[in-house]
Amino acid sequence: MSFEEKLSAVLNRAEELEALLASADGADGETVVRLSKELAGLRDIVAAGKAYEKAVRDLADAEAMAADAGLDADLRAMAAEEALAAKTALPELEQTVKLLLLPKNAADAKNAILEVRAGTGGEEAALFAADLFRMYERYAQTQGWTFEPLSVNETGLGGYKEAQAAVTGKNVFEKLKFESGVHRVQRVPETEAAGRVHTSAATVAVLPEAEEVDLKIDEKDLKIDVYRASGAGGQHVNKTESAVRITHLPTGLVVACQDERSQFKNKDRAMRILRSRLFDAQQALLDKERADDRRSQVGSGDRSERIRTYNFPQGRVTDHRVNLTLYKIGEVMNGTALDEIVEALLTDDRLKRLSENE
C-alpha cells in the first residue's frame, strides 16, 4: 500500500468513526467509549494528513495559475512564489505524516514498572540509583503521571540497592522504554576528601505493566513466602510477618516486597512486578523490536557499558545512542529537561523505523 493509500484509509476511517459517533444515540456506553478512543488516537494524523493534502492542492492550484498565459504577469509571478512555498513545505509535512503512520507498538500505551538498581561503585552507585529514582519521580510529575513506589531497598546511608515503582498515565511505556540500560555517573563523592572524581553505575529497566488480561498466572506455579520485614520500621519490624516473597516456579523469577505494613498490599505489589517481568519476557520472544530479554537490556552494571553518562564536574549529560549532550545536568536530574533526551530518542527510533519501512 502506497503512502497516499495509507493516508486515505486513515482519513476515511476517521470520517466513518465521526459518523458512527454522531448516530450512536442508542449505542451502549462501551461501544461509544471504544469508538471515541479510536478516533482520539487518529486525531494527530488526521490533522497532519489534512494539512498535507491542502498543501498538495495549493501547489497544484498555484502551478496551474503560474502556467496560465491568460493571466497577467504579476498574478503569475505571485502564483509562482506560492507554488515554491508549497513545494518547500511539502517534504516536511509528508515526513510528519509518514512518522504518524508508522505502526504502533501495542505496549506503548501501557503503564510501566520502573526498576533501578545500583551497579558498580559501592555506596556511590547506590546513592546515584536513588538520585535516578527521584529523577524519574520528578519527570513523572512534569508529565502529569502518577509515580507509585512499590519496593525500595535502602542502604542506610541514603542510597538504594534497588527500587521499583509503578508509573501510570498516558503513553508511559512509549516515553520511558528507552531509559532501560546502564547509566554511568562521574562525580566527586561526598566522602571523597581528596576531591577525586569517581565513576560508578546504576541499571534501569522499564517494563510494560501487564494486566491480568495480558497474562494469566496459575496459582500452582507460585511459591509464596511471608517473613518479618528487615530494616527501618520500629517495632513493626519485629512483630509482623508482613513481607512477601513470590517465586514463579517455571521461570525461577523471584520478587520480594516489604515496604507496606500490610501483607496483602505487599503481595499485590509483588504480583504487579512479577506479572510485568513475565509479560516483558514473553513480549521479548514475540516482538522483534524488543528481541533482547530484560537482562541483556540492562547489561551487567559494569562501568564500561552505558547508554548515558552524567558528568557532574562538567555539568553535562550525554546520551551515547543519539550523541546528544545537554549542559544542564541540574535540570535533567530534577526532571524538567529529561524530556529533551526522551524526545530525541523517540524521534531517532521513528526515523529508523521509517527508513526500514520505505
Throw out a few tags for this protein:
alpha+beta, 358 residues, 10 helices, single chain, 48% helix, 20% strand, flat, three-stranded antiparallel sheet, eight-stranded mixed sheet
What does this structure look like?
By secondary structure, the protein is an alpha+beta fold. Helix content is 48%, strand content 20%. It has ten helices and eleven strands. The protein has helices at residues 3-22, 29-66, 73-101, 122-143, 172-176, 235-239, 263-286, 294-298, 329-333, 338-357; strands spanning 112-118, 146-154, 160-168, 181-187, 198-208, 222-227, 243-248, 253-257, 308-311, 316-319, 324-326. It has an eight-stranded mixed β-sheet, sandwiched between helices. A three-stranded antiparallel β-sheet has the order 6-7-8, with helices on one face. Strand 2 and strand 3 form a beta hairpin. It starts with a helix and ends with a helix. Mean pLDDT is 85; it is low at 232-238 and 288-295.
Written as H for each helix and E for each strand, in order along the chain, the element string is HHHEHEEHEEEHEEHHEEEHH
% residues in beta strands: 15-25%
Unreliable residue runs: 232-238, 288-295
Count of strand segments: 11
Number of helices: 10
- Strand order in the sheet with the most strands: 2-3-1-5-4-9-10-11
Whole-Å distance between the termini? 11 Å
Give the structural class.
alpha+beta
Gross morphology: flat
Radius of gyration: 26 Å
State the share of residues found in helices, binned by percent: 40-55%
Question: What is the residue-mean pLDDT, rounded to a whole number?
Answer: 85
Biggest sheet overview: 8 strands, mixed
